[in-house]
Amino acid sequence: MDDIKKEELQGFVFVTAHNRGELSDDVQSGIDAFDIDIYRRFLNVGFERRQHADNTGEDGGGTKSVEYLMRALANLEFILSH
Q: Which burial class, exposed, middle or buried, applies to 26 when counting CB atoms under 10 A from its CB (0-12, 13-18, 19+)?
């Protein structure tokens, strides 16, 4: 769990929000403030995209594995508090 840093998730969440066209001022503020709901929302989006890409062989799943995203979601509160 210590191998996932909140700054790493920050980059992932930012890119995911940007790629979906949802990077509003409110979302950016939530990302900067490490808002758990914003992070959970975009980690779930990334998880679903990665899982879909893995299952279908299509491009567009991103760089993080399903396992990584599952670990991040399961430990999100801990990760964002450190």
A: exposed
